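User: What would this chain look like folded?
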Amino acid sequence: MEALLVIDMQKDFLNPGGKLFGGERLRKIIPSVREVVDFSRDLMPVIFTQDWHRKDDEEFSIWPPHCIENTEGSEIIDELQPSEEDIFIKKRRYSAFFSTDLDLVLRERNIRKIWVCGILTNICVLHTIADARSLNYEVTLLKDCTEALNDNDYEYAIHHITSVLGADVITLETFRTLREEDVE
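Assistant: Here's the prediction, encoded as structure tokens.
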């Protein structure tokens, strides 16, 4: 079994005026992420992670306050049209596995393979993939469905994900081809 993991596609990061808006560089992946979410819904569980902080979160000594629990900024962006059938994992740290139910959610569904997309490639995506690999999940990152704030951070993360963590990195087009072959 497999699942699509969509990392932190939230209003505070992706909407102009968001508390930690990453700019058009991040917004450019929205259509690709939307496509992979729509394509995956009939094939596998879609799991959205949400950065989910308390007002006094320790992380705010590093980053400006963002994605405060139960605020509009913590919501998944409207373009992805999350549904009631999707699974939502709220996280307070970079990794979606750290102090959350993600591992339990996956194991209860006998999921061993995770397809990953979302932001930021070098922070929450990287930390989540590192923990997934430590837990022996098979992981594939969709490289045109993830982004960082600059080229150096993106390239560093892609290199680390492949050469250190041993995860696969493919394009959305390759993902579509693989999934279509499995359906046939």
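The chain has one domain: 2-183. If you want, I can go into more detail on any region.
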